[in-house]
Inverse folding.
């Protein structure tokens, strides 16, 4: 991981996931840690939504599990979803909302809309979501 992401980090916590039935517990984990770190409940739920989308994508596109980490940095809560780079990986900033009649493809665009900052780390195997407090 890029050393810049480690500076000033506190309240670190993590959970792994491997199957779809793990996701409900992980959503609660992200929301609860974000609220405990001082994020307003509505913003914590947006962070939970974004993290859930990334975790679902991990399971769908890698066929493997991953790791979710939550920590605080100065004025922000950070949630990282780490996996193996999925097929068709698109870096943050590349997501475009599909046409209204498209059945799929909104997830990454929604992630970028609801989070303050979306970035990658670890060579693209981790996506970090930042929400200011």
């Amino acid at each position: 991981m890029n050393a810049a992401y480690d500076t000033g980090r506190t309240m670190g916590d993590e959970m792994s996931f491997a199957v779809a039935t793990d996701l409900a517990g992980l959503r609660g984990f992200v929301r609860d840690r974000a609220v405990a770190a001082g994020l307003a409940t509505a913003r914590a739920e947006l962070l939970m939504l974004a993290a859930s989308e990334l975790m679902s994508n991990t399971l769908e596109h890698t066929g493997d599990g991953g790791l979710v980490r939550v920590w605080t940095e100065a004025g922000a809560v950070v949630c990282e979803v780490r996996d193996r780079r999925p097929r068709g990986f698109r870096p943050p900033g590349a997501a475009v909302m599909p046409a209204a009649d498209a059945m799929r493809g909104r997830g990454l665009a929604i992630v970028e809309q609801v989070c303050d900052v979306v970035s990658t780390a670890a060579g693209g195997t981790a996506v970090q979501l930042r929400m200011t407090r």
About this structure: Helices lie at 23-36, 41-62, 107-114. The chain has one domain: 3-132. Confidence is low (pLDDT under 50) at residues 1-10.
